[in-house]
Amino acid sequence: MHGKHKAYVSTAAAVVLLAGGPAVAAAAHTADAARTAPAAAPARADVDAAGAVAAALKKYPGVVESLDKDGAVWHVDVIAKNGKHAELTVDTRSGKVFTENADDNSDDDGGNKAVVAAKVTALQAMKAAVAAHSGQVSSVEWDDDDDNGSRYWNVEVKSGDKTTNVHVDATSGKATVSTSDSDGDGNDDDN
């Protein structure tokens, strides 16, 4: 009788495991996975150009002179109100800012002062450029054309594999779509 009782208890335990045990465990596991999956793997958005500007200016207050995406980092040049210059790197994934170089001497030709005094900031130029040509900003650069005295921001906007240059006047904020380069090699030719 002892052997039959043992077999009965084993069978009963197996039935409980098969009927409720694994199913309940699987359901609990699925519920846990559903609860933790969004937190563990959210749709992560890399730091965009505007985010890189904000992070750089938080670390080194001033005005942005240029911004350029290079792989997983943004290179941001900032000029402080006193004319001091810093080259910063912003990680596109974490948003962490690293100072690559900071110098105490201001420039001799007055270019830094022109950037600091410009009515239109790099961030405003980026917004104007994207309004004129939709896409993602990949670079912004101050351009001080000494020949005719014009000052503007040159903004590169990427849309798919096409890059479009948009010039934004540093005084009026007017955006003008300049040239485009659809093959992504940096040349404005069709080859």
Polypeptide structure, described:
There is one protein chain. This protein has an eight-stranded antiparallel sheet with strand order 4-3-2-1-5-6-7-8. The protein is flat. The protein contains five helices and eight strands; from the N terminus they run αααββββααββββ. A hairpin with a 2-residue loop joins strand 1 and strand 2 (73-79). It is α+β, with helices and mostly antiparallel strands.
Gap between N and C termini = 91 Å
* Overall average residue pLDDT: 78
Low-confidence runs of at least 5 consecutive residues: 8-31, 33-41, 182-191
> Can you give the helix content as a percent range?
25-40%
Task: Tag the structure with descriptive keywords.
191 residues, alpha+beta, eight-stranded antiparallel beta sheet, 8 strands, 32% strand, disordered C terminus
Q: How would you concisely characterize the structure shown here?
A:
The chain has 191 residues and is of the alpha+beta class. Helix content is 35%, strand content 32%.
Secondary-structure map:
Layout: H1 2-19, H2 21-40, H3 49-59, E1 63-70, E2 73-79, E3 85-91, E4 97-103, H4 111-117, H5 122-132, E5 136-144, E6 151-159, E7 162-169, E8 175-181
Antiparallel strand pairs: 1-2, 1-5, 2-3, 3-4, 5-6, 6-7, 7-8
